[in-house]
Specification:
This protein is mainly alpha-helical. The protein is built from 26 helices and no strands. Helix 6 packs parallel to helix 11, helix 18 packs parallel to helix 20 and helix 25 packs antiparallel against helix 26.
Amino acid sequence: MTNAADSVMTKDLVSPTDYSGQLHEFENGLMVMLDYCGLPSANIFVPITERQVVFRNVGQVIERIDVEQRRRSVYVSKFMAAVASGLFDAALNYLWDETIAELRKRVAQYDLSYFFDNAVKSQDKRKGLQSEADLIKIDDSELIHGAREIELISDLGFKHLDYIRFMRNWASAAHPNHNEITGLQLVFFAETCIKEVIALPLSDVVIEIKRLLSSIRSSAVTEMDAREIAAFFLQLTREQVSNLAQGLFGIYTRADTTIQARQNVRLLLPFLWQRVDEPIRTQFGIKYGKFAANNDQDEKRLAREFLASVSAESYIPDDLRAVEIASAVENLQAAHRGFNNFYTEPPLARELQRLVGENGNVPAQASELYVQGIVEVFLTNGNGVAWNADPIYRALLKQFTPEQALLAVLTFQNAKIASRLQFNLCQQHYKELIDMMKSNVSAPAIKELIDQIEEYKGPLEHMKDDDWFMNRLAPFRTIIT
């Protein structure tokens, strides 16, 4: 025997025209109550025609969610109720709450430590994150960035969710606003959140990595096992290799890791290390320097053991100022991605400017991280400019060496930067950036490279995925490198 809820789940929603009269009656009742209370009643509700657009399309979107999961999706019910009430800003807020709740649940069920190691760049903050309860200390931006890092969501999913997060912050009931959301936009937001997070199954690679991390912690890995696992490493993308390497570093240097687990890491790491990119290897050296600077003797010893297991002590930086700069960049990025960034960014920007000095002297170990960080904050969060910090960013950009200028121009290839380029303000600042970089370089090949980027006619966020455009750039990049 089926109940009413089950029957609704197995058929299309009733046509909006069948109950538009009820919506009118419901709205009229609310208007009467608002008038009775002496409250504003104009421009409160989205027109019923827009609500009908949502109801006409949302049924097949929600059907993507498993029946059992739907029964638990309280925020989706609130989303529907807010749509019916004509409060689209509140509906978007409820949809985002459901998405974040589901993403936190998936992170907790996957591998918390692996997530924290990849999502949280500040070692000081990372120390205070241990359990599922600590996920609330991760803001929404860090959560979706971290989920992309460990591939719980795709690059495209991250880009779309980043945009929805932006809209949730500036066009929903989360903050006072005068922005309007249409019915079709709301349906698109719902489809994205459901498709990319709420109803998304884990990929085979993600499941294998989860199983591997669990095995490392719970059972012994033999030399024969390590060779078999090495075949799996060959199937990983460069980004997956980098993320897994950071996860292994996190396991090895954590105080509560068992001796057996560290032995497992030492067996596996040589098979993975040959595919780890230079910037990631350099990060391990910088992390060692941070442990040294903070007098974390146990972590420092374990980090050196980790590097020594693959004869990589050369990545330990000679100049520990690189550590201070890296920490300053990470703190600035964290402030930039959080709330109230217009107020929290300037003092951190001034601290970074003090560390690099008037000549912009940045040790090689921290140069790429430094460039990526300055470009990200200069591009803005898409909503507005942190006016008291912007002059500092421009001054730091003008200090870039030719090598750093090239790195800055090519940051469009970074997934986080590419996602920012979907916003108009970020696009304007990127164009300013590449114009500024022209004066920092002298090589004709680099200038031609910049010219090619300036002439690109498509959406800037698509440059890195445009094979035709990247093929045009290939000759110049070959000359430069």
